[in-house]
Target: Vanillate O-demethylase ferredoxin subunit
Amino acid sequence: MNLLQVRVAAKKVEAQDICSFELVAALPGQELPAFGPGAHIDVHIPGGAIRQYSLWNSPADTGVYRIGVLREANGRGGSVGMHDTVQEGSTLQIGLPRNHFPLSSSGKHSLLLAGGIGITPILCMAQSLVEAGRSFELHYCSRSHARTAFMNRLHALGQRCRLYVDEDPVGERFRIGEVLSAQPAETHLYTCGPKGFMDAVLQAARGMDWNEDRLHYEFFQTETIPVEGDTAFDVQLMRSGRTVRVGHAQTVAHALMSAGVDLQTSCEQGICGTCVTRVLAGIPDHRDSFLMPEEQAANDCFTPCCSRSLSPTLVLDL
Model:
């Protein structure tokens, strides 16, 4: 994995339980690679966790990466580590920017829908659209005013940005159907936020016959699928000729790495796409939030960090 060493040039409280981190190159002469709207980086957090955080600053701000982190006390520990351990002046290792959530160049109008900390990639997109002189509107849903981040940046967008807060009067709540039906023809939709919020947005859009090629989304977290009823199966590695047994309560990734197979993973939730592996035979049981529905239906790749097998054997290109 290509890694960069960065220094935390600034740490700022953006809202209740949300901090932003400004990252700059730590080594003399090192340059931070360019990125596009929707990109994220892998952050290696003290303690060993690796987490993905979207870049929220404009790609025109060269030489700096800005991320926003929601502190989740009941999470897997990564966000707590960022809040409690990483301070201004700290050095971190990060991966190169990757983008599975890019802006389409064909959309004449963009509809940006964000929920909670999902505002981070959406804010980057909004700033990029402003700079490109392209048409868009942004709708941002938040639980409370205290937990609403980046207000100064959002106010600068003027009437193109609409905020909805759960604690405000019911009449001012976000109405998905009304917003979708008011869009110009061929509008491209971009959404990021909690899974329930995104599921509601995408279900409404599909119910109104929005084409899949106009729906763009990125999940921050996925639901844990119960393992009750899961059975063991074999994974055959075509290139090495080895066969590895995957237990009923074991992930494919864990089984492979325990057997000494070199497999790169990151989020371990089927979100980031780091571990996507080609499937040569067998039927995967897709449990990720990364692959598009048509990619899952093709059954020629899967995410071993969370997905399993519906057939007794999966043959992988490993």
User: Anything to note?
Assistant: Helices lie at 78-84, 119-132, 151-155, 176-181, 195-207, 252-258, 293-298.
